[in-house]
Design goal:
Helix content of chain A is 35%, strand content 12%. By secondary structure, chain A is an alpha+beta fold. By secondary structure, chain B is mainly α. Helix content of chain B is 80%, strand content 0%. In chain B, helix 3 runs antiparallel to helix 4 and helix 6 runs antiparallel to helix 7. The longest helix of chain B is centred in the middle third of the chain and has 32 residues. Classes of the chains: A alpha+beta (280), B mainly alpha (203). Chains A and B meet through helix 6, helix 7, helix 8 and helix 9 of A and helix 1, helix 3, helix 4 and helix 6 of B. The complex binds protoporphyrin IX containing FE, iron/sulfur cluster (SF4) and FE2/S2 (inorganic) cluster. The site of iron/sulfur cluster has 16 residues of chain A, from helix 4 and helix 5.
Chain lengths: 280, 203
């Protein structure tokens, strides 16, 4: 080190739009104490000149809260998915390599479109239905001990890091990944949400659901919020094991209570001939 | 998402890995271990197994069909993963990758092993006895192939048992899963010793 002004080198995988191919661009920036990846990106935006001394377009990225609670700034930094707002340059090996989270469609440079996560939340019914035609009054109380662990699950910011880290979430599979699954456990833990427990469990027994988990456990290692994702997955596996028998043998909340569901299920399972006989 | 065929197929894949395939593997390695007690003991045990009543039905329904289902669906599962052990080199992820590599290798190994032994017996070209295995394993390359095959099988079964416990919701908490790791490690070590000792008894 010594006299020469200290600099930081960034290698950024860029892409102009979703369908265009990507390319790498290098940048060398003056070092400042305590700088993070976002402040470096801001510096590049201020002075978009690459390492060859050529003027280039500013690098695009997404951000919002700047305190690791919104998830917008997630990207792959030196090979690992994480939030760039809390990635301190002093703690990173150089050159610092930035890449978009390619599990999602790239919008531009480091910006990705995470809408599939919101679609998944819709598919698994990750909400507590309370709407009705009249005021239903208060719901049941939640035990304090349960509230404590449920609170941990509620910290999810849908950042997508757990999906990016998962080997089973990729373009060959439609696995929804750990985050929406853990939300099912959260909604099912809620005393009012529990009233629709079987609907969510049946949803995650569908395609791209729980069964696609292969237990690599990268999600729990990578989640910035420390959410016990693999405990959620195993707990859901247990719930679903029971739900499977409930469905088959019938119960008041059974999937098969409705003739419509039963019919659809038999068809899907290619039991159509059996069904034809049964309904004769 | 209400189509749960994939779910049931995955659960079946998981169940068959342990019952019957895993149980059969354990039994198979234990019977082979008679080789350490001499030619007579092994031949007697092999003879007993080969002459079980309805043996062909046992073979078809306890071994061939479950194994074929598990193997072919396993290949599909293995090739839909995008392994990333480089950047995410956590223990469980390494084991996840190893589960898939050993599975793919086992398809080759088991196919060859059945061809060399059971198939030869079926076409009347040999008898499943000590002699047959002694001949096969006298080739050092074959011996190495069998060592890797046995270790792949014991690893794949032991690590598969760990994930079986998760898949069925038996081990839920991180602590339960950690103890399960110790337990399945023990299963791996014990089965490997039994399997490798048997191989060495033939040379
Ligand atoms: C010696 C014979 C075999 C035994 C005893 C065995 C046993 C098992 C067990 C117990 C599991 C755990 C299931 C679970 O996760 O719940 C498993 C998983 C698996 N097996 Fe096998 N297996 C054998 C052969 C094969 C073969 C030939 C393949 C072909 C590639 C294969 C591929 C897989 C894969 C990919 C998994 C992971 C499934 C997942 O994570 O969802 N296995 N095996
Ligand atoms: S579970 Fe963790 S890693 Fe996954 S989206 Fe939520 S906050 Fe991000
Ligand atoms: S900007 Fe919100 S998490 Fe980084």
């Amino acid at each position: 080190m010594g006299e020469a002004a200290k600099t930081v080198i960034f290698e950024i995988e860029r892409q102009n739009s979703t369908d265009e191919s990507s390319y790498w661009e290098k940048f060398e920036l003056p070092y400042r104490a305590n700088m993070n990846v976002i402040s470096a990106l801001m510096e590049i935006r201020r002075n978009p000149v690459n390492m060859d001394g050529k003027k280039t377009t500013p690098v695009n990225w997404d951000m919002n809260c700047l305190e690791e609670v919104c998830g917008a700034c997630s990207m792959v930094i030196n090979g690992k998915a994480r939030q760039s707002c809390t990635a301190l340059v002093d703690q990173l090996e150089q050159p610092i390599r930035l890449q978009p989270m390619r599990t999602f469609p790239v919008v531009r440079d480091l910006i990705v479109d995470r809408s599939r996560m919101f679609d998944s939340l819709k598919k698994v019914k990750a909400w507590v239905p309370i709407d009705g035609t009249h005021d239903l009054g208060e719901g049941p109380r939640m035990p304090e001990r349960k509230r404590q662990w449920a609170y941990e699950l509620s910290k999810c910011m849908t950042c997508g890091v757990c999906l990016e880290a998962c080997p089973n979430v990729n373009d060959k599979s439609d696995f929804i990944g750990a985050a929406p699954l853990s939300q099912v456990r959260l909604m099912n833990a809620h005393p009012t949400g529990a009233m629709n427990r079987d609907e969510r469990l049946n949803a995650i027994m569908g395609e791209g659901g729980l069964a696609d988990c292969g237990n690599s456990q990268n999600c729990v290692e990578s989640c910035p919020k420390g959410i016990p994702l693999t405990t959620s997955i195993a707990a859901l596996n247990r719930d679903v094991s029971i739900q499977m028998f409930r469905n088959f043998f019938g119960s008041d909340q059974s999937f098969f209570v409705s003739a419509e569901n039963t019919q659809a299920w038999l068809k899907q399972m290619s039991f159509a001939p059996v069904f034809a006989i049964l309904t004769k | 998402m209400d189509n749960n065929r994939e779910f049931l197929m995955r659960r079946l894949h998981s169940l068959l890995g342990v019952i019957p395939i895993g149980l059969f593997l354990t039994q198979h390695l234990i019977v082979n271990h008679f080789a350490t007690q001499g030619v007579e003991a092994f031949n007697q045990a092999a003879h007993f197994m080969a002459n079980l009543p309805f043996v062909i039905f046992l073979e078809i329904f306890v071994i061939y069909l479950p194994l074929m289902y598990h193997a072919f669906y396993g290949l599909y599962i293995a090739f839909t993963a995008k392994n990333n052990p480089g950047h995410y080199s956590y223990m469980r992820n390494m084991l996840f990758v190893a589960q898939r590599y050993t599975g793919v290798f086992l398809v080759v190994f088991i196919a060859w092993h059945i061809f060399e032994t059971r198939f030869q017996v079926a076409i009347g070209a040999g008898e499943a006895d000590f002699n047959m295995m002694e001949n096969i394993l006298s080739n050092p390359l074959m011996f190495a192939f069998y060592v890797v095959g046995v270790l792949s099988a014991t690893f794949h079964f032991a690590n598969g048992l760990w994930s079986f416990f998760v898949t069925w919701g038996i081990t839920v908490s991180a602590k339960a899963q950690r103890y399960s790791t110790y337990f399945t490690l023990l299963v791996f070590i014990v089965l490997s010793i039994i399997g490798i000792r048997a191989l060495f008894a033939f040379v």
